[in-house]
Amino acid sequence: xxxxxxxxxxxxxxxxxxxxxxxxxxxxxxxxxxxxxxxxxxxxxxxxxxxxxxxxxxxxxxxxxxxxxxxxxxxxxxxxxxxxxxxxxxxxxxxxxxxxxxxxxxxxxxxxxxxxxxxxxxxxxxxxxxxxxxxxxxxxxxxxxxxxxxxxxxxxxxxxxxxxxxxxxxxxxxxxxxxxxxxxxxxxxxxxxxxxxxxxxxxxxxxxxxxxxxxxxxxxxxxxxxxxxxxxxxxxxxxxxxxxxxxxxxxxxxxxxxxxxxxxxxxxxxxxxxxxxxxxxxxxxxxxxxxxxxxxxxxxxxxxxxxxxxxxxxxxxxxxxxxxxxxxxxxxxxxxxxxxxxxxxxxxxxxxxxxxxxxxxxxxxxxxxxxxxxxxxxxxxxxxxxxxxxxxxxxxxxxxxxxxxxxxxxxxxxxxxxxxxxxxxxxxxxxxxxxxxxxxxxxxxxxx
Length: 448
Ligand code: UD1
Known about the structure:
Elements: E1 2-3, H1 10-15, E2 27-32, E3 38-42, H2 47-56, E4 62-67, H3 73-84, E5 88-92, E6 97-102, E7 109-110, H4 112-115, H5 125-132, E8 134-138, H6 151-159, E9 163-167, E10 170-174, E11 183-185, H7 191-201, E12 207-211, H8 217-228, E13 232-234, E14 240-244, E15 253-255, H9 260-272, E16 276-280, H10 288-296, E17 300-304, E18 307-311, E19 321-322, H11 334-342, E20 347-351, H12 361-367, E21 371-375, E22 378-382, E23 387-388, E24 391-393, H13 397-409, E25 410-411, E26 413-417, H14 419-425, H15 429-435, E27 439-444
Parallel strand pairs: 3-16, 4-15, 7-8, 11-12, 19-20, 23-25, 24-26
Antiparallel strand pairs: 1-27, 2-26, 2-27, 4-6, 5-6, 8-10, 9-10, 12-14, 13-14, 16-18, 17-18, 20-22, 21-22
The protein binds uridine-diphosphate-N-acetylglucosamine.
GO molecular function, one term: UDP-N-acetylglucosamine 1-carboxyvinyltransferase activity
Keywords: Cell cycle, Cell division, Cell shape, Cell wall biogenesis/degradation, Cytoplasm, Peptidoglycan synthesis, Transferase
EC number: 2.5.1.7
């Protein structure tokens, strides 16, 4: 067993191994509970935006530059995927910049070995179909949080004139001619389906109207970038997108929207540890409901320059939450709020409406002594005055964050396995936690 230098940037640590060998390395986090987190953190660009911005770059031949790119595993996976399609991709961690050089001719097949590692790989489907008239994308894996269908992606592309079949584990889409605009209605405001259809429609012939689209800040971000590239899009941030197809797009330089889920995780960290954290490069307007819930729990949230500050000086009160598409409460903050409720005064009802398997992490939280009962998509959390440290396994990115938060307040040592899940979404998590006063280390278990 040896310590991993937490100050090494993620890509530097990764550099010692290939992407494929990363899974074989067992890294763990050890957290000693107790103590307030106090200080300041800066949030980077959003994972859930930058992956799609990288895919959107495929729509324009030439050099796209993305700024404020987080140093996380998913960015490395997407970079590798784009390289396999024929792009040159460099990621300068020091400046948080990704440069993508897109050739005139692209390969149009995204293989299973990368797609299985990250469900968001599906976001190359729309741009590849638009650019190449064909796309073959392995059916994705990714987070272990439920079935997550692709029916709305496929139906939308078919509406625009594509053929789509599922063969040998691949989704194969093609179109003899340029796609043509049409009206598309989504049964549910799916983030991924909105992005797929949007990226396919920007260079279609004629007008596409997509109704009941997702309204997440990450959708607004990609619309902003596509518009700068020359796309004609109106309605970003509302339930209807109108896209008038253009012949071609040009590459641009674009700054990624801040990661509201990472900002929200830090806000919960302040509350659960009864601490005081100033979160920079964060937008309160992207987190309204979550921050209101924290205020109900007893926290003080104040807007500061380029972000907000969360302070807490008492044991939190429990808060009910119901996850919904934006602007509702984000499912990606649900595990963190369950952790908070696990040590709060009172009982809370948590309703998960997006991903049925997201409650799997509750079994891990129970290992720390949390009192959580689930029934279908509801969880009843009865707050305990004290959790007790134990070994636990992160089952997805946000479950990992929830377990770290619980470990910060559990008595004794909590050991967290499945760290690669956390690496998929949180850049500089351990060093930032250390700077705020957490007693946490990262250990490489296979290196004795
Ligand atoms: C994105 C985010 C994820 C977040 C989620 C909801 C990325 C990389 N991931 O995931 O972190 O939790 O939004 O905010 O951006 N569905 C279908 N058929 C479809 C599409 C979706 O049934 O064609 C269902 C899914 O199974 C799921 C729900 O719709 O139950 C939400 O999915 P969606 O909004 O598409 O989420 P993702 O884009 O996968």
